[in-house]
Write a structure and sequence with these properties.
alpha/beta, Glycerol-3-phosphate (1)-acyltransferase, 4 domains, 8-stranded mixed sheet, two-stranded antiparallel ribbon, 16 helices, 10 strands, 10% strand
């Protein structure tokens, strides 16, 4: 027992390395994880005290635990068996496919990333690019059942929608977005998952995938997770409100019914004086497809141009970006016929459409397209007359000065040559009319 053993130095170093790894994995790492977990729990507790809708425990589960809970659900197990039989593959192959779908969908929410980085970045980006305004905010949300699941339903004008609503809803709750395939690129996907968003394939034809996605949304809804969805299913290509799709709303209703939990749908309407992707969206509409070909060189060039304008002191913000929160729609208040996915989607889109903010650029574009060339004086008169027929709660008039609003809107349009002066007349060139119509379409249902 006391005899000596001689080892080569490399073997001794290897033994020490294995011993250190074993000690760390069995003693050190669990303690470190416990320490940070306790700090996170205390931080979340402090956050929940100031949030209108506290963060639900389901959202704080470890991602691996959420994946396991999802793929071992009895309904998903049955779906795996059916998929294996239908596709003629082994059940273990179908199970791995379901696991891959679950890993693709399930987020890994981090309260520190969301409330520490994401909201600060959203505030900085929003206020740098736009003059952000809350046009209308219905107070009904504070009066609903605190145990109800809140779902923000929004029109989809721009990818800035995510940023803008995250910033403006910072004191309400942490939102879990349904995000399309455009965001499944590294490293953006890691950040978006940490913010609690879940990825969806909008055009997937796999029944197994849809079952896994449906079950995740149902579990989230049943657990009371605050969500944000776009009923239109994608960006508006022509600027107008689109027909709602029922997929996600159907899953939410199924989750609420299974958990016997009330759901509050909060209409959120957004509008912009300038949509960053407007020309890309119009090009996609002309080509008849939703494959947005925004080359990285184009994006980089646009960023460099804006930086140069800021350095030289010639940068102007892209006008106003406005958000309106409409009157909440409670699931428990709906009759049996109204509580279907089809009827609900129509009802929430109707509330969104009535809450769309009216901003200077869309209104001026609509007037010039409708009434043709006019002088500045005629435009100011038309602008004022139109405002009298619109709901004052939806209209944002900068500085409460209509002449200033016309000036601000015209400057934005003339910088992009959407409107030009021909003598005393303001006209929209034929080549720019599709772009002018893109902005006018955002409020055409109100005109």
């Amino acid at each position: 027992m006391t005899s000596q053993v001689t080892l080569p130095l490399w073997a001794f170093v290897l033994i020490l390395l294995f011993a250190a790894v074993t000690f760390a994995s069995h003693f050190l790492f669990p303690s470190v994880r416990w320490f940070f977990r306790r700090r996170m729990e205390r931080a979340v507790k402090r956050l929940n005290e100031r949030l209108e809708r506290p963060i639900q425990p389901f959202k704080l589960l470890r991602r691996q635990d959420m994946i396991q809970r999802l793929i071992y659900d009895p309904e998903i197990t049955q779906a795996i068996v059916e998929h294996a039989r239908k596709e003629g593959v082994r059940e273990d192959v179908a199970f791995e496919r379901a696991r891959r779908y679950a890993r693709e969908i399930v987020p890994s929410f981090s309260a520190s990333v969301y409330f520490g980085f994401a909201i600060s970045a959203a505030r900085l980006l929003s206020t740098t690019l736009y003059r952000v305004r809350m046009v209308h905010q219905d107070s009904g949300l504070a009066d609903v059942d605190p145990d109800a699941t809140v779902v923000f339903v929004m029109n989809h004008r721009s990818n800035m929608d995510y940023v803008l609503v995250t910033y403006l809803a910072a004191d309400r709750s942490a939102l879990s977005y349904a995000v399309g395939e455009w965001a499944r690129v590294w490293p953006l996907s890691r950040l978006i998952r940490a913010m609690g968003a879940y990825f969806i394939r909008r055009r997937s034809h796999s029944d197994l995938y849809r079952r896994v996605l449906a079950k995740y949304v149902q579990q989230s809804t049943g657990a009371g997770v605050t969500q944000a969805v776009f009923p239109e299913g994608g960006l508006s290509l022509d600027g107008s409100l689109g027909r709602p799709k029922i997929g996600i709303l159907k899953y939410i209703l199924e989750g609420a019914e299974a958990a016997k939990r009330d759901v509050v749908f909060v209409p959120v309407a957004l509008n912009y004086d300038r949509v960053l992707e407007d020309t890309i969206l119009l090009r996609a509409q002309v080509e008849g497809q939703r494959k947005f070909r925004a080359r990285i060189s184009v994006v980089f060039g646009a960023v460099v141009k804006q930086l140069w304008l800021r350095i030289t002191g010639r940068f102007h913000k892209f006008g106003y970006a406005a958000v309106s929160f409409g009157k909440p729609l409670l699931l428990r208040d709906l009759t049996k016929g109204q509580a279907t996915a089809e009827a609900l989607s129509d009802a929430v889109m109707a509330r969104i459409s009535q809450a769309v903010p009216v901003l200077p650029v869309p209104l001026i574009a609509a007037l010039l397209l409708r009434d043709g060339p006019m002088t500045r004086a005629d435009l100011e008169i038309g602008f004022s007359k139109t405002l009298t027929h619109l709901d004052a709660a939806q209209v944002h008039v900068p500085r409460n000065n209509r002449d200033y609003a016309v000036e601000v809107g015209l400057r934005n349009l003339m910088e992009r040559k959407i409107v030009v002066e021909d003598g005393t007349q303001l006209i929209t060139p034929d080549a720019k009319k599709p772009l002018a119509r893109f902005y006018a379409n955002s409020i055409k249902h109100l005109m």
